[in-house]
User: Which sequence fits this backbone?
């Protein structure tokens, strides 16, 4: 293929449209034999290579991801974005890149979006012009139809890696600074509760999956997610996923429902994939009742804004400010904040611990910040170090896991 959704000279778009209609009317699968029969019925005789090419293109359009298949099959691609038929963007971890892939017209983008939505068991039409769903292979689908999306259907696909990254791979990718993996291992071993914050596409789910892979194999992890994206490399994981209401308005399962169910499933680690609503009340309550090591992700622009963000969510759920900060002070220990730099690289920009200010409100204290040679200590480092050591029950010597001394956490002291 040359990057465009075309065919050979002998089999153009019009001919493929005719074959597509023939297959639809006959209820046949787009096998090479059926495609060849359809071509013969239309008085066209093509060679084996052309027939196989036409069959593959039809199969990809009818039951695959159309022209996006090669992009989704690329293991380096994390996001595929289609804002217009002639503009397909990808993110390979270094920022957005415009590809040479195109669709013949806006109708082709709409057809693909509607078919993918149907595969996910969701409805996408003029009455319900947007969809947010998970495809069977784990890919996250979001699509918006015109006229809500001006000019063309807007299609976004987030690729979920079949296997979680290891912490060592994140160090190699630059997400974790050199030596920083020892801090993360100590955090998990200490069973401290933590939140991973950051903006959209900063790698929160990727980092959380990697950290859950560090949990002791003898512990039971229960995940509660709106859309199942976490895939930790761990032998004992229970995954709970929400679902929307059906066309009759029944069957809705929301994240707070999942958190309540998760608490009844004997979790050693309770994980909320993304804290963004009333589930914050259930999560904080759980972390205050013996469920150590709980964690989740949260959208926030900076680690220092996490308490305010949680306060807004808690207030919307009916929890007053004083009660929320009281629970927050006892429930949450550490914040890992991710950013994307100007080159599109994802990295842990800062690590904060929590404390109460004189008014009784919870505030964050910087403990570590990103450094090219390793984490750089901030004023909250001693508090973080003391927290990890005081809560270490893993039998792993924190003296080996957490470097001591002055400037950076690269082991050089």
Assistant:
């Amino acid at each position: 293929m040359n990057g465009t959704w075309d065919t050979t000279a002998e089999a153009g778009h019009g001919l493929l449209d005719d074959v597509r209609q023939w297959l639809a009317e006959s209820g046949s699968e787009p096998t090479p034999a059926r495609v060849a029969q359809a071509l013969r019925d239309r008085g066209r005789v093509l060679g084996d290579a052309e027939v196989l090419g036409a069959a593959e293109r039809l199969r990809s359009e009818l039951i695959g991801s159309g022209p996006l298949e090669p992009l989704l099959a690329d293991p380096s691609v994390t996001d595929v974005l289609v804002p217009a038929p002639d503009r397909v963007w990808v993110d390979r971890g270094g920022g957005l890149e415009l590809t040479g892939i195109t669709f013949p017209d806006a109708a082709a983008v709409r057809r693909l979006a509607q078919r993918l939505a149907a595969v996910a068991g969701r409805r996408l039409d003029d009455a319900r012009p947007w969809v947010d769903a998970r495809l069977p292979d784990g890919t996250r689908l979001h699509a918006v139809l015109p006229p809500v999306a001006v000019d063309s259907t807007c299609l976004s696909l987030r690729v979920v890696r079949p296997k979680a990254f290891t912490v060592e791979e994140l160090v190699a990718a630059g997400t974790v600074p050199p030596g920083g993996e020892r801090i993360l291992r100590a955090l998990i071993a200490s069973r401290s509760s933590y939140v991973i914050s950051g903006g959209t596409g900063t790698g929160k789910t990727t980092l959380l999956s990697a950290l859950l892979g560090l949990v002791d194999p003898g512990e039971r992890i229960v995940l509660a997610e709106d859309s199942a994206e976490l895939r930790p490399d761990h032998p004992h994981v229970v995954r709970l996923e929400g679902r929307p209401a059906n066309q009759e308005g029944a069957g809705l399962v929301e994240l707070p429902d999942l958190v309540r169910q998760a608490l009844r499933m004997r979790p050693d680690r309770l994980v909320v994939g993304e804290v963004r609503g009333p589930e914050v009340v259930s999560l904080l309550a759980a972390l205050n009742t013996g469920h150590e090591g709980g964690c989740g992700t949260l959208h926030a622009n900076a680690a220092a804004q996490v308490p305010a963000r949680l306060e807004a969510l808690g207030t919307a759920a009916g929890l007053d400010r004083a009660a929320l900060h009281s629970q927050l002070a006892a429930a949450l220990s550490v914040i890992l904040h991710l950013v994307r730099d100007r080159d599109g690289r994802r990295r842990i920009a800062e690590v904060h611990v929590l404390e109460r200010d004189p008014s009784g409100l919870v505030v964050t204290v910087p403990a570590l910040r990103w450094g090219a040679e390793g984490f750089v200590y901030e004023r909250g480092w001693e508090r973080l170090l003391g927290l990890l050591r005081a809560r270490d029950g893993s039998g792993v010597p924190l003296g080996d896991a957490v470097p001591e001394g002055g400037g950076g956490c690269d082991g050089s002291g």
